[in-house]
Specification:
Largest sheet: 4 strands, mixed
Helix content: 40-55%
Strand order of the largest sheet: 1-2-4-3
Number of helices: 10
Order of helices and strands: HHEHEHEEHHHHHH
Distance between the termini: 22 Å
């Protein structure tokens, strides 16, 4: 199962390790010569903030450095690995690599999870298109989860016309009511919504639940895509919320019921 182990209890610090019992600072921490407790706390806070900035995890977006695009695919793949994915193959598609890494940094800044594996693979979409009878050109990205290992896979389709003019396609899909937003990165955030749901509630994701008539009407307040099933409802709602869209309470209630997390 995907997810992160969370501690169920806290262990009190050994009193013998605390030079100043009221401070809670262990002796194993490396004090600067002559530093007091307040000085040491301030120094440690700055060290941690600097570390978080480098990792793209600082909570204050205003302090985050601007995304720096990689100059080679190899560099982009290394950056993705640094962000936390287990494996990545951008297959010489540098623009896609940079676009995706930029979004990955934003995801990390929000405290959300990344897929374990990332692959740019046009052949996979051709195969799926034949198997599930859809036009691969209309699908720029896809998500798949291995229920045996709990690993998540994020696929990108380099032959999709979406990559030729992302903004135009997003505006078109939104104007028809099919996408919840007109943001050019909408389909990437949509697929990452699947990653989030699977990580937060694998059971809800695996259930592949169809929407009831009442739920279908609620999903219609998000988008046409959201009405396909519970998975797509959660992913579309995640994308809409990630771009700051305000949604009705019944949408939010249903979203959280099926494992959705509020950004």
């Amino acid at each position: 199962m995907a997810g992160h182990a969370r501690p169920t209890s806290l262990t009190e610090t050994d009193k013998s390790k605390i030079p100043f019992p009221d401070s809670g600072i262990d002796k194993v921490w490396n004090y600067q010569p002559g530093a007091g407790v307040a000085d040491e706390l301030a120094r440690l806070k700055k060290v941690e903030q600097d570390k978080l900035k480098r990792l793209g995890q600082a909570g204050d977006a205003e302090t985050m450095p601007a995304f720096i695009r990689s100059s080679t695919v190899q560099q982009a793949e290394q950056e993705a690995l640094k962000l936390g994915v287990k494996s990545v193959d951008y297959r010489q598609h540098l623009d896609i690599a940079n676009d995706v890494n930029d979004i990955f940094e934003q995801i990390i800044q929000k405290g959300e999870v990344l897929p374990h594996h990332v692959d740019v693979d046009a052949a996979a979409f051709v195969l799926w298109g034949q198997q599930y009878q859809f036009n691969p050109d209309r699908v720029p990205a896809a998500f798949w989860a291995d229920d045996q290992t709990g690993d998540t896979y994020f696929y990108l389709n380099p032959t999709s016309s979406y990559w030729l003019n992302k903004q135009a396609q997003a505006k078109h899909e939104h104007s028809t009511g099919y996408w919840a937003t007109d943001h050019q990165d909408h389909p990437i955030w949509h697929e990452l919504g699947h990653v989030m749901q699977y990580d937060n509630s694998p059971i809800a994701y695996q259930a592949q639940t169809q929407l009831t008539p009442t739920e279908l009407a609620i999903a219609g307040k998000v988008s046409g895509y959201a009405q396909i099933d519970v998975r797509e409802f959660v992913a579309e709602t995640f994308a809409a919320l990630s771009f700051g869209k305000t949604l009705p309470n019944d949408v939010l209630t249903l979203y959280q019921l099926y494992g959705g997390l509020l950004p």
